[in-house]
## 1
Amino acid sequence: KQEVTQIPAALSVPEGENLVLNCSFTDSAIYNLQWFRQDPGKGLTSLLLIQSSQREQTSGRLNASLDKSSGRSTLYIAASQPGDSATYLCAVQTQGGSEKLVFGKGTKLTVNP
Amino acid sequence: EAQVTQNPRYLITVTGKKLTVTCSQNMNHEYMSWYRQDPGLGLRQIYYSMNVEVTDKGDVPEGYKVSRKEKRNFPLILESPSPNQTSLYFCASSFLTGYTEAFFGQGTRLTVV
């Protein structure tokens, strides 16, 4: 059974700092890994999608990497801003069966001005 | 604009009163699914559908029903809601290939009293 773990559960940093969020998964039979952002009580906004054959994806100040063999992904946020404060969720889409997304429990990021 | 639309966004109801949460997508996606999000438990899949008239149970299907009569719509039905179904619900859709981004609705916050 696929399990996704995100560390740390919460992170507080000063504005301008570069930071890394971690995600690990137990089963490497995945189609892709997606990073989402969720603001309190709101929906999920997709940030980056990495196919299982890819190593990384970049969008603006965000860079996500994937090491499928070791079951790890990182989300790097450069020059953090208060507007980046949110919960970041990592999800892997599993192969076979329900094709479902299995989510980690998220990292709650606070960027202080 | 590509989107997944859920209605209602907020709902307070009483135990036992049947309700339906609607979900519609405009991207011609084959795959649609419902998740619930609870504190400390994260997002868990309730039901999914791989195409019209094809539905199956996810991880937490008890107390829920779904139907997929049209490709764009995937309603979630609670025949007899109970307080333990108080949660934040998300509908999601994607292509079935497994290598594409999943899109999420804005969520429905349901309270059963």
## 2
Amino acid sequence: SQTIHQWPATLVQPVGSPLSLECTVEGTSNPNLYWYRQAAGRGLQLLFYSVGIGQISSEVPQNLSASRPQDRQFILSSKKLLLSDSGFYLCAWGDKPYGYTFGSGTRLTVV
Amino acid sequence: QQQVKQSPQSLIVQKGGISIINCAYENTAFDYFPWYQQFPGKGPALLIAIRPDVSEKKEGRFTISFNKSAKQFSLHIMDSQPGDSATYFCAASKYRNTGKLIFGQGTTLQVKP
């Protein structure tokens, strides 16, 4: 069966520090992968999506970047975090025709 | 054109009642409409989904009603239970495209015992 792993679960980082969040998928090949951010009490904002290795599409200009170094690995990064980067970050993979499967999320607090 | 508008923002229902959440979209190219359920601190989980070739889909206590001409769809939760208390998101996508989902803003449902 397919599973998605996301870590860490929580993270507290100072302003100006770098960020690296990792997401891996098991049990499938060439999945569509997505990074979403959810601000407190708000909806899901699509940040990046990838349809294959090295293929990244950015949805919102921001202080973040994404990479897909391997078929089932998706990484969200920042060189210098801002306070506004705080939020709940969710990785998902597209599982047609069943929609998305989300990871368990990373709660990022920038202090 | 890419937006999905969801209402209400929050909803309080008595146990046993019917919960109704509505969504509207503008892009007629959307052809896949799922609903997700999210509990605090967890990722959203797919609840039920519909394609525009049907007007209604039912799974247990959960029903999606779809009105293609009005570009609206809704989630009905029958016999609502306290365990249904969660945030619900509607979404839409162009299924045969990248599959990327555009989400509504979410509805926080509280079912009172």
